[in-house]
Amino acid sequence: MIKLLAKLLRVLNSETEPGQISLGFCFALIAGLTPLLSLHNFVVLLLVCFLRVNFAAFLMGLGLFTGIAYLLDPLFHHLGLAVLTAPALEGIWTSLYQSVWWRLEYFNNSIVMGSLVFSVALFVPVLFLSNLLIRRYRQHILAWVQKTKIMQMFKASKLYETYQTLSAWRNG
Amino acid sequence: MGKWIRWWGLGAFVVVAAILGCVWIFFVDGWVRSLIEEAGTEAVGAKVELDAADLSLFPAGLTLARVQVTDPKKPMTNAVEIAQVSMGLDGLNLLRRKIIVEEMVLSGVQVGTPRVTSGATREVSPQEEESDMFSIDLPSLEVPDVKHILEQEDLETVRLIEALKADLKREKDVWKSRLKELPGKAQLAEYKKRVKQLKKAKKGGLKGILGGVGEVQALKQDIEQELQSLKGAKKEFEEKIVLLRTRLEQVKTAPKRDIQHLKAKYNLSPQGLANMSQTLLGGEIGSWVRQGAMWYERAKPFLEGAHALRGGEAGPEVQTPLRGKGMNVHFNEAHPLPDFLIRKTTVSVNLDLGDLAGTVHNITSDQPTLGLPITFTFSGDQLKKVKSVALEGALNHVVPTDSKDHLTVQARGYELGNIVLSKDAKWPVALTSGLGDVNMKAEIRGEVLAATGGATLTNLNLVAGKEGDTNVLTKSLSSAVTDISRLSLQADVKGTLDQQDVSLSSDLDRILQNAAGKMVRELATKFGTELQSAISAKIAEPMQELKKNFSGFDSIAGDFTERVTQHNGILKNLLEKKLPTKKLKGLKGLEKLSDGLKLPF
Questions:
Q1: pLDDT at B134
Q2: Is B394 within 8 Å of B406 (Cβ atoms)?
Q3: CB neighbours of B270 closer than 8 A, spacing ≥ 6?
Q4: Cα distance between residue A122 and residue A138, in whole Å
Q5: Is the previous residue joined to B59 through a cis bond, with omega within 30 degrees of 0?
Q6: Quick check: B327 and A81 CB within 8 A?
Q7: In this complex, is the C-beta atom of B312 within 8 Å of any C-beta atom belonging to chain A?
Q8: B330 in contact with chain A, both atoms CB, cutoff 8 A
Q9: Do B17 and A42 lie within an 8 Å CB cutoff?
Q10: Stretch A52-69: mean pLDDT
């Protein structure tokens, strides 16, 4: 837990592009909220590997959103069912149903559809919001936080020591 | 661009995907095996086990080695054991989560093989012994002691006599007390007195006459009322007597019923021989039918499986949700196929009588989607114990509300041997050898089962009876049975899957009737005559008493008649009286009245 928190702080305080951190977090939003062993999550994994997104942010986000997904399952089910049974969309779903790949995607399951719609809808807003928050944190809070008594105490703590060790490993 | 692309990441993805693929390939056979075992065990209700499962991807196929399906009623026996099952899978449809098998080959199918370990998944209730524990209800040839029977038996005749006797006594008492309450001699004397007074009033002038008119009317009304109640009571009494006499008639016919009952009870009726084929073979055939119905009931949920989940034709269909797993919404497919289908199955079955080969087409749990029924044909020639056997049938659940299943079986030259037909201690019967030609046709429509079958048995060798048998009947029957070399048998099964009625007929019935029927009938006649005379003697005295009791009612009837007659007499006497008219003439204003005045009755 301490290591994870240290990792987060390291990522936020590092020179990593805010966009890379946000994108990793947003990919984790999709992979975490939707059932893990879905076809689209292989695409997400491919993108996470291929694009220069922050792995640490992705893995932390994945843990966080997987936990939240369990709580949001009823919401996903109702949302997915509403989308799948909407008369206006029946034609689209029927044509996708004929495709092997879409069947493999299991799109006709209420939780898969509900969670996918939910996470895709949040993808762009969360991307921009987290981007903005990281920038604001670095501009205004980081310097101030460094000077606070709590941070001073923190710097003297074992947690900071771990953080320093990790930094040393990275630089070394 | 380079800022956003991580080329080594692509390689990492390939490595991760390859690792996942390897894990899947390494473990998939075990997963398939446990999946089949779990699903099979749940469907059968006893362990289904495989030695191995091998899933190949290119081309897509599955091979199962040594499939053992435990008989749920006999956990140490396999209902079916299949040496190898191999099938080719439609890979494209597999990606659509549909298991479509173009051809499946089942080789080395055996039935009733022993198991090393118990295949029970739940406690097996002790089986009811079906054919081993029965005894044949043969007619007895020992004439029972009539005197002893009459001492022991509760005869209907005696019961009726006792009941009628008690009722007669009670009725007699009731009517005697009713007579006391009804108008009798004292009332008649009172009326006579009132009539006399009226006569006197006639002589007492106009005032007396006018007063007398009212008195006569009142008297007439009183007499009529009482006459009415007397007549009503008399009618009621007569009806009661009719009822009691009917019961007396029943008492007179009761001895006949008692004799019939006792003859049946002491087995002195030739009816027992009328359907001996049912007794000897009915149990065995009934057991086969029940076993067939049990397996059919087990297969039925599979035949109608998809139908239970289906909704209407139009619009998307929604399956039952599972917690945390959501619901699957199904849409119309351009080329609909069931989720599970084996288009053709080739089977080779190793039975005791030899090897049977056959094909099964269209095995699916969703016939409405496929639009075709499951059909099967099996045949075998020159087998060990049968010249030829052919089996053909269809399980048609294309329209689940109007399911039609049929099965036809034909066997020629089936070698029969060492079949115990009766384990009855009094009369054991066994078929040592013979040949049978069998035709059978069964149909199940919904829940209704109907089957007919015929068999011609030739070259028969039957042994019956036991050594040193002294019973004339069983000796005679044994002699008749051992002489039989040819038999024809007809079986009909009707009813539902839960309850079937098996009826059997054959020339065996006629043969046995001829052999022993006359003997039993003579004995029954003798027993009946003895019973008749014994019962007649036993009831002679009570019957006399009954008749005597009836005569007691004659005096009551006579009393009623007398009272009614006397009341009628006095009423008639009263009506014949007229008022005097002479004195009215002398009275002013009443002369006109006297011309036309008469008593108002």
A1: 42
A2: yes
A3: B139, B513, B516, B517, B520, B521, B524
A4: 24
A5: yes
A6: yes
A7: no
A8: yes
A9: yes
A10: 89
What pLDDT shows up at residue B601?
Answer: 38
User: How close is the nearest chain B Cα to the Cα of A120, in Å?
Assistant: 19
Q: Do B95 and A103 touch (CB under 8 A)?
A: yes
- Rounded CA-CA distance B72/A96 in Å is 44
A–B interface: beta-carbon pairs under 8 A: 87
Quick one: residue B383, left, alpha or beta (phi over 0 = left, psi -120 to 50 = alpha)?
Answer: beta
Task: Look at A111 and B9 and tell me if their CB atoms are within 8 Å.
Answer: no
User: Per the CB < 8 Å rule, is B13 touching A85?
Assistant: no
Closest residue in chain A to residue B330, using alpha carbons only = A108
**How far from B503 is each of B282, B450, B456, CA to CA, in Å?**
7, 12, 17
ipTM: 0.77
Q: Quick check: is A160 in a domain? A: no
Q: Which domain holds residue A27?
A: 2-138
Residue A52 to residue B334, Cβ atoms within 8 A: no
Rounded distance, CA B103 to CA B88, Å? 6
Model confidence band, residue B96 (pLDDT cutoffs 50, 70, 90): confident
Q: Is residue A70 part of a domain?
A: yes
For an interface test with A, the pick among B20, B318, B329, B333 (most A C-beta atoms closer than 10 Å) comes out as B329
Instruction: Tell me if A43 is assigned to some domain.
Output: yes
d(CA B88, CA B343): 11
pLDDT exceeds cutoff 60 at B590: no
* Of A44 and B178, more confident: A44
A3's tokens: 């290591």
Using CA atoms, how far residue B177 sits from B226, B563, B583, in Å, is 17, 15, 49
Q: How far is A137 from chain B (nearest CA, A)?
A: 23
Cβ contact A49–B6 (<8 Å): yes
Share of chain B above pLDDT 70, in %: 84
Residue B267 reports pLDDT greater than 70: no
Chain B nearest-CA residue for A48: B9
Asked if the Cβ–Cβ distance from A108 to B326 is below 8 Å, we say no
Q: How confident is the model at residue B510 (pLDDT cuts 50, 70, 90)?
A: confident
Give the pLDDT mean for A95-112.
Answer: 90
Quick check: B412 and B386 in contact, CB under 8 A? yes
Total domains in the fold of chain A: 1
Q: Report pLDDT for B580.
A: 43
Q: Would the CB atoms of B326 and A110 count as touching at under 8 Å?
A: yes
Q: Is the pLDDT of residue B594 over 60?
A: no
B129 pLDDT above the threshold of 50: no
Residue B433 reports pLDDT greater than 50: yes
* In a domain? residue A152: no
Q: Does A115 touch chain B (CB under 8 A)?
A: no
The nearest CA of chain A is from the CA of B29 a distance in Å of 19
Per-residue pLDDT of A108-144, as tens digits, reads 999 999 999 999 999 999 999 999 998 888 887 777 7
> Which contiguous run of DSSP H or E holds residue B537?
helix B518-575
How big is the CA angle at B406 (ends B401 and B412), to the nearest 5 degrees?
175
Nearest residue, CB atoms, A49 vs list B10, B316, B329: B10
Kind plus residue range of the DSSP H or E element containing A120: helix A110-136
DSSP string, B547-580: HHHHHHHHHHHHHHHHHHHHHHHHHHHHHT----
The mean pLDDT of chain A is 85
Tell me whether residues A45 and B97 touch, CB distance under 8 A: no
Scanning B197-236 for CB atoms below 8 A from A yields: none
CB contact under 8 A, B321 and A110: yes
